[in-house]
Amino acid sequence: MPERTPLAWVEIAKGLCIGLVVLMHATLGLEDALGERGYAHAIADFAQPFRMPTFFALSGLFLGRALASDWRPFLERRVFHYLYFYTLWLLIQEVIRFPHLGGGTLAGTLSHVAWSYVEPFSTLWFLYALALFALVTRLVEGVAAPVVLGVALGLAGSDVTTGWHILDVACDTYLFFYAGYRLAPQIRAFGARMRARPALAAGVTGGWLVVNAVLIFTVVPALGHTMVAEAPLVAMPLGALGVFGVIALATLLERSVAGPALAYAGYRSIVIYLAAFAPVAALRALMVRYGLPFDVGTASLALTAAGILLPLALERVLRGTPAACLFVRPSAALRAPATILRRGRSLLDGAAAASAASVASVAEAGTSVASALAAPPVHRGALVPAGGSLPLALGPRES
Prior knowledge:
By secondary structure, the protein is an all-alpha fold. Helix content is 73%, strand content 0%. α8 crosses α10 (165-182). The longest helix is centred in the last third of the chain and has 41 residues, at 332-372.
């Protein structure tokens, strides 16, 4: 992992969040299979408000560098990069779960793959959302930031429910991604302050943990909800508070023995995110079939550890081999989309030029016929200029 000491808290915060993501999937999957709950469920509930908002805010933190570049490098780094991993691991999961996802038929599998680009598949939705959010942010770059933040805030607080999962998730979480981008200087300054003042960081962390616990385990049930996500007016402030709480906690963990391990997990969080499903699913099946060696909560933590450590070990073994493309995007994977876009643009420009030439030819023919019939000349300023030559007022692109 490269040295990034002043911003080590970013990687540590990502490591915390990816660990909580794996814990959530491991815990809920095992509990559903066994029909009983363990103490790890409370940890998953506690992390629910801030887990993904923090991930999205940290993802938007360095978006400004990509937005400052031209469209091609921007698309390569922020759109095709994530779509490459989304497509690759979508196909891997289709092969592994062929009878279940595709119904055991090639047509069913192809249909499921195609539909997965409309409704992102399972755990891979986060990669799809990152590409989508980056593209949307580029398109609204000319709009005043307060306007975009206001719209995003309204969507996050309105509990939009369309049934289209990616749209509903985007309405809930785009606010954190865009705020991470627009408020990047303030967030970095907050991290630097927490890092320089450990006592203050400890106070912020303690206060956040108490407020988060009280709202989740007391206020939300009192409102008649079983999950904080069902109460958007509570979930949104808790998500924002959680972003800063996790940052403060990360600056404290930087000084602990767990800091380097968490930073390593954060630096390679995409490896864990992509491959955790396989060891978690395999070990869960063994636990369900042969019984648990310990209680459900501890078994959930064991699955979480496997979902983190085994993908990291696999990536380390594959590093430097052709199979490393599972976790490291080859540069050639971006040449094809870039070439397609470049050739498509050339074709459009060529078609526009040909169309313009056709218009010019028709205009010349019309002028010749008009002259032959002794029609009055077409004066300058009209649609077609008078005279033998017909310069086009618009270039091929505008035509």
